[in-house]
Amino acid sequence: MRISLKQLTSLAVETQGGVALGRVFDLVLELDGQLVVQYLVRPSRFSSTVYTVSRDHVINVTEPKMIVEDSVSRIEAD
Known about the structure:
Distance between the termini: 35 Å
Shape: globular
Structural class: mainly beta
Order of helices and strands: HEEEEEEE
């Protein structure tokens, strides 16, 4: 399955336990391998809460949503 950044940023992100985290708004890439290292997720456009989701914590990605492990990290933006 392939997905564009535009499609990715419109996906809902929720934990395996069903907790809605928000939507992907940015990515962290590893340039050497051209791989996604982390997805940055925000509950809303104006929220200061940001969840960092390691690619290793992604369980499933489908057209409507991304399911991640319950152990994602939360950081507060400045």
